[in-house]
Amino acid sequence: MASGRRSWLTSTMTLLVIAGTLICSNNVMMVSGQCGGSVSDAIAQCGQYVSKTGPTIPPSPECCTVLKQFNIVCVCKTLVTKDVVKLISVPKAIYVARHCGLKLKSGSKCGPITIPSIPAKH
């Protein structure tokens, strides 16, 4: 039981740090206005799927709905920073985005990240 509580606490703290980073950023209003979507909705609906802890699991339909409201090119240019990348599981974030149908071109840059190729299915 302690392990489950610790995982929940870690996930909650991660989301709070991400939210704090985004709220304190000078770019939040610009991102919200120019990139579409709601950062707070994205954190609420998708945060659990990009946590550094736990398994990689498919995102909920609600998470995908929120993510599809964003202009991914705009988000990659203005919101994805080294600080945000330190707080999330990048492989999970890429998995979630692709699972939701967002177009992430292999080899392109999203903030400090180079998007990897899609693994071949066996």
From TrEMBL:
Q: Which residues form the signal peptide?
A: 1-23
The family database entries (InterPro entries) matched by this protein are listed as: Bifun_inhib/LTP/seed_sf, Bifunc_inhib/LTP/seed_store
Please give one Pfam family short name.
Answer: LTP_2
Boundaries of each Bifunctional inhibitor/plant lipid transfer protein/seed storage helical domain copy? 46-110
Q: Which UniProt keywords apply?
A: Signal
Q: Does the keyword Ribosomal protein apply?
A: no
Annotated protein name in UniProt: Putative lipid-transfer protein DIR1
